[in-house]
Amino acid sequence: MTFASPQSVKAILGPTNTGKTYFAIERMLAHPTGMIGLPLRLLAREVYQRCVERVGEGAVALVTGEERIVPAKPRFWVCTVEAMPMDIRVDCVAVDEIQVATDFDRGHVFTDRILNARGSSETLLLGSATMEPVIRRLLPHAEIVDRPRFSQLTYAGSKKISRQPSRSAIVAFSARQVYAIAELIRRERGGAAVVMGALSPRTRNAQVELYQNGDVDFLVATDAIGMGLNLDIHHVAFADDSKFDGHTSRPLTAAELGQIAGRAGRHARNGTFGVTGGTEGFDEEMVVALETHDFEPVKVLQWRNNQLDFASINALRDSLEMTPEHRSLTRVPIATDQHALEFVSRNEAGQLARGLDGARLLWECCQIPDYQGISPANHGEIVTRIYWDLVKRHHVSEDWIAEQVRFCDNASGDIDTLSNRIKQIRTWTFVANRKNWLADPSHWREKTRDIEDRLSDALHERLTQRFVDRRTSVLLRHLKDKRMASPEINESGEVRLEGHLIGTLEGFRFTLARNDGDADIKGLRAAADSVVAPEIHNRADRLAGAPNEEFVLATDGRLRWKGDIVAELIEGDALYRPRILMLADETLTGPDLERVQDRLSLWLRHHINTVLEGVMSLEAPADLEGAARGIGFQLFEHLGLIPRSQVADEVKGLDQDVRGKMRKLGIKFGAYHIYLPLSLKPAPRELALILFALKNGGVRQAGVTDIPHIVLSGRTSFVVDPEVDTRLYEVAGFKVAGKRAVRVDILERLADIIRPLIALDPGRHQGELPAGAAEGNGFRVTVEMTSLLGCSGEDFASILNSLGYRVKRTLKASAPAAAADASAEAPALEEVLAKNPAATDAAAETPVEAVVADAAPVAEAEIPAPTIVEAAPDSAEPAAPAEPEYDEVWSPAGKRPDNKRHEHRRRPEGEVQAKRPERNHRPSGPRRPEGEVQDLSKARHLNPKPRFEGKGRNDHRRPDDQKGERARFERPVEPRKEKAFDPDSPFAKLAALRDSKAE
Q1: Are strands 488-489 and 494-497 parallel, antiparallel or unpaired?
Q2: Alpha helices by DSSP H, 242-375
Q3: What pTM value is reported for the model?
Q4: Percentage of residues in the chain with pLDDT exceeding 70?
Q5: What is the layout of strands, in order, in the sheet containing 717-719?
Q6: What domains lie within the chain, and their CATH numbers?
């Protein structure tokens, strides 16, 4: 091959998913001729197909160790690196994955191509960025081109194999481990494709197709996916971080981990990586290195002399053992071909290697790969036989190779058997592709290729049957064997018989692994009991002395010990004293059962007292007396949260000193609720929900297990599920308001935003009005409000309606005239809304807390929805140029004794609105000047009486002949005695703000 000038060499370096191989293909096809060397036969096949689609089958040759497709006049050569024909002149040469030059077995071949493979116009060396320093030392004039990764790679931590996300690749480093993981995924998640280096390209492509077309969502593979497979992988999980590299078992380097992890996220889609299957998580330094693709640079490459001396075997051996002169190169350890040379040279066949041709032929025979992974002696015997035939007969014996091929021509057997036959046929496929080694090479190429294809298809079928279509249980082979060994139980609770799973022990319950076939269930259980009973006794001892940290109460009301379910809660005599029901087999009895129950009961009492500590302290608070003590006990009875309306009268009678004592106990007086803020955290609410459900419908009812997840998500509001008891939302710390459930503390924050807007007098306010300010003791909805609750539009309006606010919608002056004309046909909005007057604000004359306190009773009443006025009759829908725009002002709704609105009717066109009758027995007086705030200090609707529950009718109800008018209350109202504010309370600060504005 022609050596080009140093300036024509380009090193395209970068992490995975940078498009290096795609770039090299495009550059090669842009030249008249070209050659690309790839690390895997599988990848060579893929690139060959892509080039054939671009330039035609007659222009592309495929040359690998086991496959040779060479048209009459190819312009482009796609090869494995080892099979690259170095004597062919081409314009462009590309060598992919040059970092393999560090590999002990194949590295010297890649090093040779880096140093010697050149195109006459352009040479491309593709690989990891870790190769940059050594490339600069070896090829100082080479141009280095860095390519960044298209997507980001993020560490996702550790997850169980059964909880891996869809579209995941789980990586292991032995066939046994790969099969075990694939079996587990098949049982838990439906199936997995399997990819290993030992599989033939045809089998690997078929398995990959299962994954790519969505038949399975998981791929279990060895590090074979690190090169040559561009798959739709979202997540890569390492089931092991060490491997046997042919010489020793060692941890994977960061660069090797990065090569595999980089398979996650292709092109612009980001990917994640993590660990599973008991593998320890990566430390921070490793995580940073993998996420940033910053690995330790390569220092030396494996090298072997390529200027071999074939004068004799000794001369050949000496030339192979030469040491490199460059400090960035190191002599490769003795490779497989050198072992074969040593073996042949020691027997009679070695004596036949005379002269240049004999030694050269012997070396070609020694380069037959050991696909079977057999011992050097066995592999040497195959090489010896082939070399003997070539020297004595000038070709390999037809009978001998026919016998070897016939042994492989059998598509029956299990996965391991088929895999071994594929390895063997690959050896004879390699022999069939050597020039002049066989009398009829084309016949044997077709023969071996056909056998390899049939074996590959059979292996794919076996893999699919085992890991996708059905559950293959090897345990059934042992059911009728009376000599089978005693079962064993491992740390994870698996009960195994001669390595095969017969059941699992979770907590104190043994579950038999059922099979679709006819199994001897009684025999299996009897065999398992011999090991299960002693293990249950040992577990009872360990649980009795276990620390509190090993127990967990889940949202389903079940107690778990070390992850295993051991009991569940059932209704007890009191709210805070549920009973424990053991979930155990009949094997757990007597003293063992009592000790387990006592330990779980002790933990449960401690758990309730710890998680609900603030609530439990309110059962009999020493510092509270009278009404305050009663309020505290009600909080205790209601798990730390009660509506303010429920204790409104009691709260009004509390002075600031008593309130201060209650605040020290963690009690907060909100506009709508009295509650303990610390008890609103997820853990207390989850426990409170379980305790409440046990007394009210059970923990299996809808919502008990779902609501805690919503609490943990941090959502401030969400749409309620009509199938869920609304009380569950309230216990979980939410108030059902309209169509949504709103977190209690968020509702109080909303009240804190609305309160000063209602108290604001725009006429007296100096400076720019705050967002949401409106005239007439109202407010407008702001982005701050909707963002706080996480909803807007009708959902937000339903919340405000349920809280006792009503909206007045006024057509904006800027609205199109057409819209105004259309709306004129409907009743005037002002007239309709005037029949639902809003309550005016009393913030200027009364304590703020008293004003807010009325919102809760209003919310409790069933207030009719506001009247909806249609813009035009349904029968006529003229096209309007634009939708009319309305100004919406919300204000507190007034209370009526009958809790109903006036009935509305449409006034006939032209009819003048009748003068409203004066309200009964209420003298009329002059109207307040505009902007003046009404004195509400004596307003009766701000000092409501407790609601009647199941009592007699209200004597002050409107009589039937006074419907449409307000009823008059004759009883005199004593002026309410003003109470001093706590100077540290927010209400005192708001009152001070009001006074300053008044001045």
Answers
A1: antiparallel
A2: 254-261, 284-292, 313-320, 336-345, 355-366
A3: 0.49
A4: 77
A5: 717-719, 740-743, 734-737
A6: 6-146 (3.40.50.300), 153-292 (3.40.50.300), 301-469 (no CATH), 475-544 (no CATH), 548-611 (no CATH), 612-675 (no CATH), 681-732 (no CATH), 742-872+881-908+930-957 (no CATH)
